[in-house]
Amino acid sequence: MRRGNLIPNLKLTLPPPDEVSLAKFLTQSGTFMDGNLLVNRDGVRIVSQTEVEAPPPIKPTDNQLSLADIDTIKVIGKGNGGIVQLVQHKWTGQFFALKVIQMNIEESYRRQIAQELKINQSAQCSYVVVCYQSFYDNGAISIILEYMDGGSLLDFLKKVKTVPEPYLAAICKQVLKGLLYLHHEKHVIHRDLKPSNLLINHIGEVKITDFGVSAILASTSGQANTFVGTYNYMSPERIVGGKYGYKSDIWSLGLVLLECATGQFPYSPPEQGEGWGSFYELMETIVEEPPPSAPSDQFSPQFCSFISACVQKEPEARLSANQLMAHPFITMYEDLDVDLSSYFTSVGSPLATL
Prior knowledge:
By secondary structure, the chain is of the alpha+beta class. The chain has helices at residues 19-25, 49-53, 107-122, 153-160, 165-185, 236-239, 247-262, 279-288, 301-310, 321-324, 328-331, 340-346, and strands at 32-34, 37-40, 43-46, 70-79, 82-89, 95-102, 131-137, 140-146, 188-189, 198-200, 206-208, 215-216. The chain folds into two domains: 65-146, 2-Layer Sandwich (Phosphorylase Kinase, domain 1), CATH 3.30.200; 151-216 and 232-346, Transferase(Phosphotransferase), domain 1 (Orthogonal Bundle). Helix 5 packs antiparallel against helix 7 and helix 7 (247-262) runs antiparallel to helix 9.
């Protein structure tokens, strides 16, 4: 037989593909793993047994997450046009928070969501919740975020009722570092700072989340005049519809800290035992009445001074995040070596137990 000729009538057959077996090892992310063989877009390599058992955790810069590679565990939050689910990555076992937002909503909300994606994907800071990836599919936006297993500061506050000053100073220091990053690195006003947008975890970290109503300020003046955000924590200058800047977040921070310290929202309705008749009534009180203060007979002079520096009616009179970092209230407890990790876990995490 001459080279290159095939035997006449020879039939070559291949075994039928085992679709179930293939699906077990290959996902939409393009990674195939069987035993110690790993194949992905970077090529083929043999990994050690320890690597097979514990793949390296995915980093935000890896850009390799796929919705097909995650399993849903449970719903952990609802609001702002969507839900938040706890999910687990099939390969690494990592937990993430998956925010799913349906797009059959008003155009104003769509713009807010687009803004959130833009800010989230560009933010890289230890005091801001990490965004790993986002997808648009079947009329929904899915955002894969860092999972904070302690829930929100609001969840925590419901359990402890009040937060002692040393812990409050340690929490505040991390929030200020997050605001410093947003204000000076990203040129962003958060505009919706409140206890439910401050997330905690079992290792004692506090991070800012939810930039759904944040604004990137294109101008160097650092001013904005749109009316969005949570009314309760809104600064007076925003309520009256005037221009506002980064210090509107400082007002909100002051109210959050005062609420954590006293166990109740700083503005009490006119009649005790009754709620506010309307949010207009609360807005009028914030604008017209003197700002709230920390009771001097219950708290240190440093804390009272810090709250006063945050909730000045005139924005120009408030201290900036950078100035507040040097305030005596932030520095006075540093020698105590405050352990937020033990404090957060001592009351039990609402989300850590799956």
